[in-house]
Design brief:
heterodimer, A: 321 residues, alpha/beta, Purple Acid Phosphatase, chain A, domain 2, five-stranded mixed beta sheet, globular, B: 124 residues, Immunoglobulin-like, 2 domains, four-stranded mixed beta sheet, 2 helices
């Protein structure tokens, strides 16, 4: 099917078919549970209303937020601080707070100290205090990530340019950096040093240990023509293939996409700032302008739940409507 | 290419067949000539995650200015580190260098490395 706009009646750069197609990508229906997941899908808004609570069998629940782009003020969203606040309000309204948050990068638009300051100030309103970060390319623009590392790696034992791992409730979490030292013509990149570290990091783990990997740029070839992929991700995934459950969480592309390959589930999250076009549907992957009343339906966050003994983690997206 | 884009735009308007637009088209041509007539000033427009023109030929000693027309920051970085790199250019920000020794210089955006371009410097 063609992804070109065929009927642009309202001159807003989108037609009905394109809109429906686009919303399918963005997951407006909000919710689905991945294969093997045990939870019925529901929105965070429903959970907040108290009509539905998380099952007590859940061993671990955490949230992924991504691409807050604090400092962005263009047409696609002139108040990204406000939509970030709304996302945090949703988290605060959950009857059972998540154990922690994972932020998958692009905290800021331009890596400016004042943008990081604004982010940190707003984040204080979140009741969940533990937050784990990986950088996006927007966070390391002029200093190779120095400022980012000073601020956001205090609670972890980071190596190299900022990668690390930790364990929670029997799940092994790995935060990777794939936005530095990028090569002309190439994609996201992990690099030799980080790959060697990863190989060593998972060596001693039993194959039944659930693995969650998070990084900014997708670790699968979503759309290499737009740079949406990581050149050496295959090698990283090779070190993980003998594990029974691997969940890969990424940001960067500002829309929900999912792929299951063997025991590995790849998932990308919505942004809290602005949507980006579905792969190949626009001249470039830049910020996508949508009608104001549609914006919040295309922003969101991702809830991930782990139940001991189940093969896969449940990954549930919800938008900010 | 900057003027080429402009010409394409005016051509499209011209296609709408209005005499008024015909006058604008002529004006566009004048602008193009004026721009081409200013010696030693070369512009590369960054738009839709692309450098335009992708290959630019200049004389040694001439100035080259990149201007970012995207809602996304971009950089200009020499692949072989042959000239100083730009800081991140926000929307409408510019970066200028002066062409040095004759040769072929490739560069890319270190934020979006799929974006590449070439500058060919000839003897002045």
């Amino acid at each position: 099917m063609s992804d070109y706009i065929s009927h642009d009646h309202e001159h807003d750069g989108i037609d009905r078919r394109g809109f429906l197609h686009c919303m399918a990508w963005a997951g407006t229906g909000l919710l689905w549970t991945i294969s093997g997941g045990v939870l019925a899908s529901r929105t965070l808004a429903q959970i907040a209303k108290g009509g539905d609570s998380l099952p007590s069998a859940t061993d671990l629940s955490f949230l992924q937020i991504s691409d807050s782009h604090i400092g962005f003020s263009k047409e696609a969203n002139q108040d990204v601080t406000e939509t970030f606040k709304i996302a945090l309000d949703r988290i605060n309204a959950m009857p059972t707070p998540p154990a922690f948050l994972i932020h998958t990068g692009d905290i800021t638009q331009l890596s400016k100290p004042e943008e990081f300051d604004t982010f940190d100030e707003v984040l204080k309103s979140c009741r969940t205090k533990d937050v784990f970060f990986v950088p996006g390319e927007h966070d390391v623009l002029n200093d190779g990530g120095k400022l980012y590392r000073e601020r956001y790696l205090k609670s972890v034992e980071a190596k190299g340019s900022g990668w690390y791992s930790f364990n929670k409730n029997g799940v092994h979490f790995i935060g990777l950096v794939n936005v530095l030292n990028l090569q002309a013509g190439g994609l996201g990149q992990l690099g030799e040093e980080q790959l060697d570290w990863l190989e060593n990091d998972v060596k001693g783990l039993g194959s039944s240990t659930p693995i969650v990997v998070f990084a900014h740029i997708p670790l699968w070839a979503v759309y290499p023509q737009w740079g949406w992929g990581t050149s050496d991700s295959e090698r990283a995934l090779g070190y993980l293939k003998h594990f029974g459950s691997v969940t890969v969480l990424n940001g960067h592309i500002h829309q929900v996409l999912q792929k299951v390959e063997g025991n590995v589930t790849f998932h990308t999250a919505m942004s809290t700032a602005f949507p980006q076009p579905a792969p190949g549907t626009a001249p470039s992957p830049g910020p996508m302008k949508v009608p104001a009343e549609k914006l919040r339906s295309m922003l969101g966050l991702t809830n991930v739940q782990y139940v001991h003994g189940k093969s896969a983690l449940a990954v549930v997206d919800s938008n900010l409507n | 290419m900057f003027t080429l884009i402009k010409t394409q735009k005016y051509s499209a308007l011209l296609f709408a067949s209005s005499f008024l637009f015909l006058a604008n088209f002529a004006l566009g041509q004048d602008e193009k000539e004026a721009s081409a007539a200013s010696p030693g000033h070369n512009q590369i427009v960054i738009k839709d995650f692309d450098f335009s023109p992708k290959t630019l030929t200049v004389k040694s000693g001439e100035k080259i200015t990149w201007i970012n027309r995207d809602d996304e920051p971009h950089t200009v970085v020499s692949v072989e580190k042959q000239f100083k790199k730009s800081s991140a250019l926000d929307t409408d920000q510019e970066f200028t260098i002066t062409a040095g020794a004759p040769g072929t210089y490739t560069y890319f955006c270190s934020v979006h490395p799929k974006m590449t371009g070439t500058i060919i410097v000839e003897k002045s």
